[in-house]
Structures are given as C-alpha cells and as structure tokens.
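Data follows
____________
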Amino acid sequence: MPKPINCDVLTIFCEVYKLL
C-alpha cells in the first residue's frame, strides 16, 4: 500500500486523495 501525501498538513488534499 503506497503511502499517500502527508495527511497532516494537507488535510483537504488527503480527503481528495482518498476519494480518488
């Protein structure tokens, strides 16, 4: 499982990444 972008600072990005 490849680790996505930092879900600490980029909280919004993390949400979008999960949706993708």
Notes: The chain is about 45% helix and 0% strand. The mean pLDDT is 69. Residues 11-19 form the longest helix (9 residues).
